[in-house]
Fold each of these.
Amino acid sequence: MTSPTAEVDHLRASRAAVLERIAGACGRVGRDPSSIQLIAVSKTVPAERLRSAVAAGLTALAENRVQEAESKVGVVDGATWDLVGPLQSNKARKAVEVAAVIESVDSVELGRRLDRLVREVRGLPVRRLPIYLQVNVDDDPSKFGFAPAELERALDDLAGLEAVEIAGLMTIGKLVESAEAARPTFVGLRRLSERLRARSDALGPGLSMGMTDDYPIAVEEGATVVRVGRAIFGERPRP
Ligand SMILES: *Cc1c(COP(=O)(O)O)cnc(C)c1O
């Protein structure tokens, strides 16, 4: 078994390597690396290892299941938790209790439910919950998210909510042979955001896109948040 100190060193090196590739991508397109947030996707990684991750500077973590997030939040200090996986309505209250940000809002109904729950859970005056609207940029039937054509209407429907803040758009790139092949998806999300923001103040400038196989490309195309799991924690056990 790896000692905690060796584990921290290893994770610190992985973090540095990812940050270096982010900086490299920024250099190619003239962006400032400090404008990009690295989120370490910690699903399947045991809480004990996550304590080493926090010690290594990986304090922004993300889970794709509410239950798994809940089991870790109380035993890993010093981290914030984004929720990046599909959220069933019966888990929404728990999600509001544990998540700093919910990146996977894929319906107007869920957005409204979160708004109501934030008021109930946090009370008034309410600290707003940042959310991202997940977009199925490529209209892939196997993926969650709003179709691009639905978003304008959805933003109008969500615009008045006071307890959630629509920080931006999120997407998951296509499973493709090369990172380069994911580029059109990222370009699509950025353009969609630009178009929508030109006509609605409700949408923030955030673009959550890019994972282990394609985050440098996503950064080149304007990502403000990258969600990286395997490049930091190694391969996950098969489900
Ligand atoms: C698992 C997951 C990631 C991280 O994927 P890696 O390929 O391990 O970097 C990012 N986003 C979402 C929504 C995920 O479920």
Amino acid sequence: MRKIQMVDLQTQYQFIKPQVDAGMQEVLSTGQFINGPAVKRFQANLEAYLGVKHVIPCANGTDALQVAMMGLGLKPGDEVITADFTFAATVEVIALLGLTPVLVDVLPDTFNIDPDAIEKAITTNTKAIVPVHLFGQVADMNRIMDIANKHNLFVIEDNAQGIGATYTNTAGEKIKTGSIGHVGSTSFFPSKNLGCYGDGGAIFTNDDDLAHTIRGIVNHGMYKRYHHDVVGVNSRLDSLQAVVLNEKLRLLDFYNELRKWAAIRYTQLLQDHPKILTPITSGDCDSHVYHQYTLRLVDTDRDAVVAHFQELGIPCGVYYPIPLHLQKAYVDERYKEKDFTVTNQLIHEVISLPMHSELDEAQIQFICKSLLAFLG
Ligand SMILES: *Cc1c(COP(=O)(O)O)cnc(C)c1O
């Protein structure tokens, strides 16, 4: 059996090495490291793939979220509602911009933001909702868009873990995540479903004016050379990363199918154990791209399972061990523990198994047999 890895980027690279190496060589020989033709090609390729009018590449997924919020003109004091159970980047940029983060609980089956909790948290200061498609599973976007329209709020989709997923909207159309809200963001961190070989990110929108505003913001607030109309940032995707992304975008659906295959195998082998809750897919089965394959272990010492896996050389992850509302940087006296019962439970139960497009049957069997044997 091949050594099991949480993410196997080396094996993946071997399959695309000739194309990636040739593309990189071309960038090296032309010297167009910033905003070169590869970046423009990637922008157009991603627009076509997502079916979205504008893709604005940037330096990473955290910048993408920040710039999206700057582009919407959110101001200090504005409240932004997001999930308590997610990676810190989402709440970090809200706080960094002087906006007020409002964390709410998630649903126990999809791990995604609870629409009822969103409605309860809305005040006259609320300006935006940031749903995160956690672990690759689409949030309840139809409900979220309804709530947003009713209360005149912006929706910023954090699609860092959900790229490639499709969703059926209320009109019955199948659309890609990231293009459902007013603006979407993603990350091309190497381990993401569409990852480069360094840092990268992008913002998506169908709104022409917003796209124009954001293109200036990522370039020092410059709409005309050396005229700085707004305070911006420097956030760019470089040409070498765009080479990798162009190659991997062509294969994204294939990679996501392989992830789905691995997820189905895991579920087949694990779903009958009374202490294991396997991930559910809400809506159609294209609505989960398994950035992570995350189980809930009920009435179990989850940390003992993690330690046992470590001894066996099986990598695993606990995403996320601490709710954001209990993180020192984001504590707020308005939060009440009774409003976070789901997150407070999930942090003790979740475990993410190795998940990537290079997993094979023998590895999956070994992981599942080891888990089942340990749980008894
Ligand atoms: C990875 C990630 C980010 C941040 O992306 P970076 O490229 O690492 O800055 C933001 N939100 C979520 C949900 C993520 O998983």
